[in-house]
Amino acid sequence: MNIVVCIKQVPDSAQIRVHPVTNTIMRQGVPTIINPYDLYSLEAALQLRDQVGGKVTVLTMGPPMAEDALRKAMGIGADKAVLLTDRFFAGSDTLATSYALSMAITKIAEDEPVDLVFCGKQTIDGDTAQVGPGIACRLGLNQLTYVSSIEALDAKAREITVQRRSEGGVQVLKTKLPCMVTMLEGSNTIRRGSMPNVLRAGREPIKTFNAAAAGIEDVTRCGLRGSPTVVKKVFAPKPRADKAKLIDTTNRPTSDIANDAVEAIFAAAPKLQTDLVGRAAQA
Amino acid sequence: MSDKAAPAAAAGGSRAGMKKELPERFRDYKHVWVLIEMERGVVHPVSWELLGEGRKLADKLGVELAGALLAGPGDASTKAIEEAFSYGADLVYLMEDPLLADYRNQPYAAAMTDLVNTFKPEILLMGATNLGRDLAGTVATTLATGLTADCTELAIDHEGSLAATRPTFGGTLLCTIHTLNFRPQMATIRPRVMAMPEAQEGRTGRVVRHSLVMAESDIITKILDFIPDANMDKAQLAYADIVVAGGMGLGRPENFKLVTDLAQVLGAEYGCSRPVVQKGWMPAERQIGQTGKTIRPRLYIAAGISGAIQHRVGVEGSDIVLAINTDPNATIFEFAHMGIVGDALQILPALTEAFRRRLAVNRLAG
What we know:
The complex is a heterodimer of chains A (283) and B (366).
Chain A: E1 2-7, E2 9-11, E3 17-18, E4 25-26, E5 32-34, H1 36-52, E6 55-61, H2 67-76, E7 80-84, H3 94-111, E8 116-120, H4 131-139, E9 142-154, E10 159-166, E11 169-176, E12 179-183, H5 195-203, E13 207-209, E14 229-235, E15 245-246, H6 254-268, H7 270-282
Parallel strand pairs in A: 1-6, 1-8, 6-7, 7-13, 8-12, 9-12
Antiparallel strand pairs in A: 2-5, 3-4, 9-10, 10-11
Chain B: H1 5-12, E1 32-36, E2 38-39, E3 42-43, H2 46-61, E4 65-71, H3 75-86, E5 91-96, H4 105-119, E6 123-127, H5 130-142, E7 147-151, E8 153-156, E9 162-168, E10 173-179, E11 185-189, E12 206-209, E13 222-228, H6 233-238, E14 242-246, H7 256-266, E15 269-272, H8 274-278, E16 299-303, H9 309-315, E17 320-325, H10 332-335, E18 338-341, H11 344-365
Helix pairs in contact in B: 4-5, 7-11
Function (chain A): May play a role in a redox process involved in nitrogen fixation.
InterPro entries (chain A): ET-Flavoprotein_bsu_CS, ETF_a/b_N, ETF_b, ETF_beta_N, Rossmann-like_a/b/a_fold
Domain Electron transfer flavoprotein alpha/beta-subunit N-terminal (chain A): 22-218
């Protein structure tokens, strides 16, 4: 089984701050992590490899420093890593990103056909969930998003059966390889890297593709130029004109504060009070 | 939506694509469309919310509002079409086929792509549900057009193009994204972000039928089974009347009992902020905010939640927000209506008691 897992290096969003005056992101010193959603897909890929054999290649598109994320993934257990990096990719939206990644996957498949592509459900910085479906569409892979469990993989028949989360329940789907899978959060627990893997991850050379090496001839399909969406404005949200009315808490017992809060709520929403009292009376 | 374009475009500014120069082949793309998302005979309410919003966009542009309904044959689509008219649609494009009875990416994407290529809408909106996101990502790729995910605000700018605003960078900033030179301009919007429009009984419109050219043997993915959710808890949070939520300020997972206690007295749903889910203290379906559920309750009580933008956008539709936080400078006080500066661990039980007493007293008096 030849499996490619697409990952993304993202800033640890919990630690991003906005400059109070210029309204720009202050990235300096913000640590980067592998997009947490990608780890569920990486683990699922590693489990399938352990089960039926084969190899797992992690692929990322990003600046040269994204190599760190690839090495982390190899430390966890991925066999190989490919870094797709080129200044032509700067400013890619999801359409341009899925184009570049699908070209790189096609290149990887020249050595050996790719059976499965895993992507994160979405990233924590972009939150779009669009790159996985974009890759599947471009490569003609059967698409399985929001997978909560992989029930069976029949390598001989080249069939995979999964449970997929839909709005009102779970679909049990069976499809043919090759396919693209995104895993739901909580669907597994990422393994700890073994010592040999961690050591190997530090040493092993990482394959680097620029646009040309990925087989991209027309770089206008990449980066800002290849992106149909245009970000026209970035801004911090306006604070509401009137801030929260604070309940007086100075030297008062908690019960008085709570009573004041209840009064304030019911004064602002008398209908809510009526409804709640009605409900309480029925109970 | 671009993951990386935001800082570059914001800082850099000038490039050819920043200007609107719509190619000739897109000039006859007109009208606003909303996907009417029907799964197993039930329309997701986000479709009606989007018709309400789409109506405003269509009126601003002076064009028609259409629903696009992909469905299996049956009575459900007749009722869905009537409802679509009542929520503001002027017409409904209907593709009815047994292959569309259940959602699968391949037939849905083929159907939607064909519908767009045939009837050429300028704007196409879908709910940011699992179905909508799975489908939109594919359709935007087949159409090679721009798609903006999880928008919180839609508007038409002075050039008549769709200005789609969404939180970015984990919800620290908002950005406004345009698809200037490709059509349709696509966007997904999360359930409950837009208000539910009033239904206008008796409002009617046209139905345009279109057929799917596909056979079951063309479709590679097969549905073996469907297991409906036993409890509908997850849906209830988004549509709850009252919601009580806790954040990292509660300190320990055990303390969330204070949240559920208050929720129980109020007959409310309970939830939490994103870091709480990341810590594994509560399941993901309880998360409120940009990447979790968007709520529009009549009363929202947020305890120990700092109020990052990604949380704010998920609760902004609430009628009343009461925030409890030890930090008087917490951003949540900037958008809450009422605030208590104090320790949620003490305030929550006091609130539970106060509500319990108040409701009991009124019950005796009433």
